User: Which sequence fits this backbone?
């Protein structure tokens, strides 16, 4: 996939790792791999060097105080990068954790890596204006020290049992009225297709922007969509394509590698890029504060209200376990349950 800078290419390796390459100006056959992508430190300098045919120098190892918090974060960063390359960690998880841990390093980086619990709470409390971000920061610290304990660097996790600031239940589920307002504002086009994909697949943002005709298959004369969710540990998902979704897909005049295309007729570069675009479309419909994940929650609630079993909802939402019934999940016919569950959605006027 190509980004909108001359000669810059974004490539996704089989492991899921994102690689950025730059074509040397005037030499179509020569490309140079750079270590940073758009928006990351040093990107423009590396891009300019590569365009001029100069391979960027590898970054020097940071000069951290041994066994300091900054040193520990750096070791964890390298370990996560290796896990991403091996396909054991989603790149988005790595990126999100480091965004929060860098902030921790700004304050506590030079202190000993045996960070006290009091310091975690103090750090959390500096972010009270954004409780969701505060909780995610604590989660990142908890992951850092869980890894550090396993590697024998420390013996205690200072983020263990640190309470959450954000007491809400996450994304607000879209109401039937919300869905109606969005469709009235976007009766056709890419935004309408996006909403329809969310409602009739109940997939995550990290999956919806990647779906396309390559995910289609026919079974017993019926069209199905099948995909492997990007979220680590999720089982494969297959759902039948119900008539409302089939109509929305076939109504698109612009056909590309994926169903959903950006303003340039290209697939969205990332889940974040698609999510930002979709939130703008929701705002246009007067639905500020509504997120794509809220549609997924709405689909789950509607399925439950229609009497769909727990296993049926698990099959559609791509959940791998249930607290009270995970022992039976492996033997369930997921295709049959997904068919039963999705047929419930067919009753909804669309």
Assistant:
């Amino acid at each position: 996939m190509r980004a909108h800078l001359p000669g810059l290419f974004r490539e996704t390796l089989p492991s899921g790792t994102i690689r950025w390459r730059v074509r040397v100006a005037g030499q179509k056959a020569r490309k140079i791999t750079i270590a940073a992508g758009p928006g990351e430190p040093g990107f423009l300098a590396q891009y300019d060097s590569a365009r001029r045919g100069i391979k960027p120098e590898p970054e020097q190892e940071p000069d951290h105080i041994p066994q300091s918090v900054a040193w520990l974060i750096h070791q964890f960063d390298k370990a996560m990068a290796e896990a991403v390359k091996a396909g054991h960690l989603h790149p988005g998880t790595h990126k999100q954790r480091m965004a929060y841990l860098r902030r921790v390093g700004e304050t506590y980086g030079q202190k000993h890596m045996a960070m006290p619990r009091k310091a975690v709470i103090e750090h959390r409390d500096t972010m009270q204006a954004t409780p969701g971000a505060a909780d995610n920061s604590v989660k990142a610290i908890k992951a850092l020290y869980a890894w550090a304990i396993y590697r024998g660097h420390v013996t205690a996790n200072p983020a263990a049992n640190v309470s959450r600031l954000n007491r809400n239940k996450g994304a607000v589920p879209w109401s039937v009225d919300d869905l109606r307002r969005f469709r009235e504002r976007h009766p056709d086009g890419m935004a309408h297709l996006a909403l329809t994909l969310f409602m009739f697949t109940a997939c995550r943002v990290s999956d919806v922007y990647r779906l396309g005709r390559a995910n289609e298959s026919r079974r017993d004369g019926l069209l199905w969509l099948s995909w492997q969710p990007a979220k680590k540990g999720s089982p494969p998902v297959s759902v039948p394509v119900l008539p409302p979704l089939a109509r929305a897909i076939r109504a698109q005049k612009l056909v590309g590698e994926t169903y959903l295309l950006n303003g340039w007729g290209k697939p969205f570069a990332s889940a974040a890029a698609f999510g930002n675009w979709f939130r703008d479309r929701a705002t246009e419909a007067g639905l500020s504060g509504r997120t794509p994940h809220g549609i997924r929650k709405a689909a789950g609630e509607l399925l439950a209200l229609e009497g769909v079993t727990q296993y049926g909802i698990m099959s559609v939402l791509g959940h791998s376990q249930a607290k009270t019934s995970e022992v039976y999940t492996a033997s369930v016919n997921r295709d049959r349950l997904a068919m039963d569950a999705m047929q419930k959605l067919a009753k909804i006027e669309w």
